Amino acid sequence: MKKKWILFFLNSIFLCFIYAQPEEQIDILKQTTSKIDSLKAIYNHPDSSALSKINALGFLFNQYLYNDQDSAKHYLARLKEIADEHSLKKGQARHDYFKGILFDLSGQLDSSFMYYNQAYAGYKEINDTLQITRTLVNLANIDYQQGKYQQAIDTLQRSINMCLKAFGEEHAELGTMYGLIGNIYSEQAYNQLALQNLLTSLAYHVKSGDQIRKADVLTMLGNVELNLGNYENIIPYNVEAISIYKEYNDVYYQAESNGDIGNAYIELQQYEKAGPYLTEGLALAKQMDAKSLEGKIYAYQSKIATARNEDDLALQLLNKGLAIHREIGNPSEVARSLQRIGYNYLQNNQSQLALPYFNQIIKMADTIDIIDELHDALYNRSTVYENLNQLPLALDDLKKYHILHDTFLNKVSIQKIEELRIMHDTENKEREIVLQDNQISLLEKEVTVSQLQRTLLGGGLGLSFVIFGLVYYGIRQQLKRKRLEHQHAIKEKEIVEKEKELETQKRESAEQQLEFKKKELTAKVLQLAKKNEFLHELETEIVELQSSVDVSVGKASSRISRMIQRDAVDDEEWEQFAEEFSSVHQEFLDRLREQFGTFSKGEMRLIYLLRMNMTSKEIANILRISGEGIRKARYRLRKKMKLDSSEDLQGIILGL
Asked: Same structural domain for residues 278 and 235?
């Protein structure tokens, strides 16, 4: 359900497009937003302006996004051509925003993040506040999908504050923002906070009459019920959502809601009811090429097969899902699929077949955060070792499991405490605001009553005394009010100072973490250089040995050479290195692409090492090429970056 909030903004964009049209076309679009032929007529009309065509193409893109992505991509490409041809910054920013959505839906988060940032910069340049807030929400959604929950919430709060300042408390977009915050809290199992924010979001969408957004919040509420184990409550939420999605031809989320209903019926052990929902969800997922969702539904169907003792079918379905999640690069779902397959073999007393699957999960846990799956895999593997009579290994895994289990329980307790703290802080802030408002209101009433009393009592003393009394008490009440306002200002200042202090601590912590990562990355590279230098020297020794010994020793030395080659850095290790490098040098990579465009994998590897101030000898050892090869690589990179011979390649890279 993580991508669902993107759809919220697309529907809002529709309204913005309408009001951006010339007068003679506003009425047409108001009356025919659901009629594709009318949009195509505006796009193809010879008298339509470039902006009108761009807006019509935006409508068409959105119309097809969730039911025919090939057509959506076609219209988006035409939108970019027109925007570039006429140098329309608004159209270019809109293209980048839509492109970010396409990559987001396909799970290509790095590309999505890049396009959203380009859109954000474009909208800032033309001072489009509404689209800035929307882009911030989608950037927060990327952080959310990558598990950066607090960063996502901070971005959303920034968007909320911007929206409140520009448009007021009644603005419908606030419902979207509260909804995503609720979804993030749901992911963290902060269920009460999730419910509060989702119900606030639902109220906004019901009031605005936005059915699609209402449907999306309903499915989010279903997710909270899933966290709470209230499976029967999931079904009515999603049934109502499906009726809305069908009305708006939203195929992707029909598929997702069908999957959620099917899974709820499985948890309730009502397998006959679950089957049709999963079948329909799978067909719709395939129609939309929604690979991740397709893999999840295969896992749901495998539960039914297992319940019916159809073990071969269950394994077949699980392996289909595993292949899909590996294809699209979703490590958490890969781990879940491996767990299910291994457990299936374990339940059928096939411990030897189960073992490799649990081994893979435990190995994956070294590089990604899959604590839940690691927790279960350790326990299951200990059972496997016990069945195979490898008792020391079983005991070792069981000890690790209990340590992790205690950690897991502590994590759950900390989550509950943290949720209570957040709720307490929120309630205190709200209570302070209400108390201050009440004090000001009471003071205003006291001023009114005092003025009336003094007027009546002073009536017999003459008009001058009445005026004097009113002035006196007015000044007195004004002084009281000023004192209260002063106290309020002091409290506000204290809150601001505390928030600044917290932000400073967060920033210092982040800087320390970044510096540690940089040092760790440099240490890894230097260690790799030393290793490869040693391997190179060893290879040289082997070559000399081959020329001076008999054939049998020569064959053995050849095998050793091949083993050394296999120990060199492979593509998978470079991919892991590139991810670690990006986490600490993202701003450098952004400036590099902005100034010099894109580079091949080989060129990027050289750039990484130059950025880390490696010497030519160290680079040659790491890349396992000669000094002459390094010189050629530097020459090609300099040519790619269009640098003069007088310019220092490494100096430019270090200075970015």
From this structure: yes
Q: How many domains does the chain have?
A: 4
Q: How far apart are CA 633 and CA 447, in angstroms?
A: 82
CB 47 within 8 A of CB 28: no
CA 644 vs. chain centroid, Å, equals: 41
Residue whose C-alpha is closest to residue 654's, from 627, 614, 604, 617: 614
Is 509 within the bounds of a domain?
A: no
Between CA 154 and CA 156 the distance in angstroms is 5
* pLDDT on residue 265: 95
Residues 407-450 have pLDDT tens digits of 655 555 445 545 555 654 555 554 554 455 455 456 556 555 55
Provide the domain limits for residue 416: 412-504
- 3-class state of residue 624 by DSSP: coil
Q: Are 295 and 325 in contact (CB under 8 A)?
A: yes
* Interatomic CA distance for residues 194 and 144, integer angstroms: 14
Sign of the Cα torsion 186, 189, 195, 196 reads negative
Q: What angle do CA 521, 524, 526 make, to 5 degrees?
A: 110
Contacts of 633 (CB under 8 A, 6+ apart): 602, 603, 606, 623, 625
417 within domain boundaries: yes
- Name the pTM for this structure: 0.49
